[in-house]
Design a protein that fits this description.
Helix content: 55-70%
Shape: globular
Mean pLDDT: 88
Largest sheet: none
Radius of gyration: 18 Å
Distance between the termini: 36 Å
Number of strands: 0
Low-confidence stretches: none
Structural class: mainly alpha
Number of domains: 1
Amino acid sequence: MSSKKPNPLAAQPGTQGIDPRGPRFGATITLITLTVELIFLLASPDALSANNSIVQNFATPAGILLSLIVIVFAIGAFAGIGKHPYGAIFKALIRPRLSAPEELEDPKPPTFAQLIGFIITLVGLVLALLGVTTGAVIAVAFAFVAAFLNSVFGYCLGCQIYVLLVRAGIVGRGGASA
């Protein structure tokens, strides 16, 4: 008899699970891109300005990269974690070189985490386009911390929020994947 607690993120019997190493790989790429974004935002804080037009702020390296980050999060949140671009890279290049995972993960928590990442980085993008550099830095820093936790420690903050919301009855395992 095992006293091991069940993993609340494990795929339910009869459902299609994902390799839990895939989202962690994606978090590492996200961490790298968010690091570059923070460097862009902090290295030239005057590049984004409330005096500039939205188009001028968008045309900066910070505006372009943050837009791409938002798009990647949107794909993961709305198309599902199985369609995520970093997941495709993981499946094609990394997964074939690894042994099978010990258990599969339910795709709903990482998909929900992508939604949270999308919302946070979208807020950062809107603030960047409006020239509110400090607000953009704060939003990107929040996303950076979440990506760091997942990449380095395997702790998916968005997944844990999803589990808490399921336990509270706010979202259901059957219906709210994004």
